[in-house]
Every structure is written in structure tokens, then in C-alpha cells.
TrEMBL record:
This is DUF7137 domain-containing protein. Residues 94-228 form the DUF7137 domain. Pfam families: DUF7137. Residues 76-88 have a biased composition (Low complexity). The keyword Transmembrane applies. Residues 1-23 form the signal peptide. Keywords: Membrane, Signal, Transmembrane, Transmembrane helix. Residues 33-91 are annotated as: Disordered. Residues 46-75 have a biased composition (Polar residues). The keyword Phosphoprotein does not apply.
């Protein structure tokens, strides 16, 4: 009887703990098998399922990096290079640049040109540190106070110009070329003839003067008339000279005769 009671109690105890034992066995079995598989395989199986991380492109900074960036609506960045002009230092004690005329030769005296012919001007630049890109060449007439354009935006690499006065056409209602004294003007096309000279820069030039005239048509010698000549004055001059000659001759003769008459 005692054995039967013990058997029944043991059966009840086993029935109570069997779920926990079976559950632990079910969990230990798969874990033990998974641990054994991971131990035998050195590469983890979970690495294949990990997505690869995409890294953003590295931003590099070098000598080619643009100075400014702008971002558009689509997120794309565009760069535009910024250019800085290099300033040229000029010692303020230096003289301003100038113009030395080569043609015409100024040492040969005053220059006169007939209106209608071609006139050549040539020069050199001196003491230039900051060279202009181009110059304007003009001629100022003192007779009618008009400034006539010879050349505009003339390259500094070509310091010469030919002025065809025969084909020249005045601009802006100017009068035609007049006879008189002209002054050659050369200055920076970005400046003015009245600009103040600056050290190392081209100073306005107005140091060449020349004359221009309009010739008259040819007149035969037989038809030529002298406007300043007076034929009546020439006849009067001849008569007076003869009278003076006769008078002095008479006085000389009388004085010579009297000298010998009263001579002892």
C-alpha cells in the first residue's frame, strides 16, 4: 500500500514538471545544434544579409577648387571660377608715360600739308608701366576750334596712322577741314585729353603742331595779277630816283668848278 502511494505521488510530480523539462529540452536542442554549426563555420552567415553601406563621395579641396558654388533646384551644384585682376604697383615718383613723334621729323622745321593729301604720323611710347589697350588720335584746328577724329581705338601695338584728308568726312555736322594750324592729340581711349597725368600711365599728348592749306588753281603767267603790287608807285619811284641823280650831279659839278675858280 505504501509503495502504491509512493508511485502515485511520483507520477503526479513527474506530470507537473514534465512541461518545463520538455520545453527546456526543446530549446536546448536547437541552440546546441546552432552553436555547433557556428563553431564549425568560421564565416558568419549573418554577414550576407547585412546591406552594404553606401558612402557619400569624399569632397576634396585643391588648387582647382572653385571660389564660389551655387546649388540649383535639382540639388546639383555648379561652380564658377572667380578671377581677380592683379594690380600693378607704380611708384608715384616715376614720370608718366609719353609719346615721342618719329614721323614727321620735328627737327626739320614747321610742317605744312595740302588738304587732300595723305599725312603719316608715327610715334613711340616712353616710360610706360601700365599700357593702355588702345588710344584715340585726333587733330584740333585752332582756326575754327574743331576737333577732327583721325583714328579711334587704335591698338597700342601699332603706333602709327595714315590720315587721308582727301577722303576725310567730318562727323556730327562738323565743318570741312579748314586752313590753319592743327595740333595732334593722342590719349588713352578710356581717358580724355584733359586727364591729369599719372605716374607710369600714358599722359595725353598735344606736342605736335602742323599747318594745312588749300591750294589755288593754276594761273598762267600772262593772266597773273599781283594783288599787292602797284604799277603807279613803281613809275613814281623811277622818276624820283632820276631827279635825285640829276640834282646831286649838278651840285657836284658846281662845287668842283668853284673850288678850282677860287683856288689861288
Amino acid at each position: 500500500m505504501h509503495l502504491l502511494k509512493t508511485f502515485v505521488l511520483s507520477s503526479v510530480f513527474l506530470l507537473n514538471i514534465s512541461p518545463y523539462v520538455l520545453g527546456s529540452a526543446l530549446e536546448v536542442g536547437p541552440n546546441y545544434r546552432r552553436q555547433a554549426r557556428e563553431t564549425s563555420d568560421p564565416e558568419p552567415a549573418s554577414s550576407a544579409s547585412v546591406p552594404e553601406r553606401t558612402s557619400s563621395p569624399a569632397r576634396t579641396t585643391g588648387s582647382d577648387t572653385p571660389a564660389s558654388r551655387s546649388t540649383g533646384r535639382n540639388g546639383a551644384s555648379s561652380s564658377s571660377p572667380t578671377t581677380k585682376a592683379k594690380a600693378t604697383f607704380v611708384d608715384p615718383r616715376l614720370p608718366p608715360g609719353g609719346v615721342a613723334i618719329k614721323t614727321p621729323i620735328t627737327t626739320s622745321g614747321s610742317q605744312y600739308y595740302k588738304i587732300g593729301q595723305k599725312i603719316t604720323f608715327g610715334w613711340n611710347y616712353t616710360s610706360l608701366i601700365v599700357s593702355p589697350s588702345a588710344v584715340n588720335v585726333e587733330a584740333f584746328c585752332s582756326g575754327n576750334s574743331q576737333t577732327y577724329t583721325i583714328a579711334q581705338n587704335l591698338s597700342i601695338a601699332k603706333p602709327s596712322v595714315v590720315w587721308d584728308t582727301g577722303l576725310f568726312k567730318p562727323q556730327n555736322g562738323q565743318p570741312p577741314l579748314a586752313m590753319g594750324t592743327y595740333t595732334l592729340l593722342i590719349y588713352d581711349e578710356k581717358s580724355a585729353i584733359t586727364a591729369i597725368p599719372v605716374a607710369g600711365n600714358l599722359a595725353p599728348f598735344n606736342g605736335l603742331r602742323f599747318g594745312m592749306y588749300t591750294p589755288k588753281p593754276y594761273t598762267p603767267l600772262a593772266d597773273f595779277e599781283c594783288p599787292t603790287c602797284d604799277t603807279s608807285s613803281a613809275v613814281t619811284l623811277d622818276t624820283t630816283a632820276i631827279r635825285m641823280l640829276v640834282l646831286f650831279s649838278t651840285l657836284f659839278s658846281l662845287s668842283f668848278g668853284l673850288f678850282f675858280t677860287f683856288l689861288p
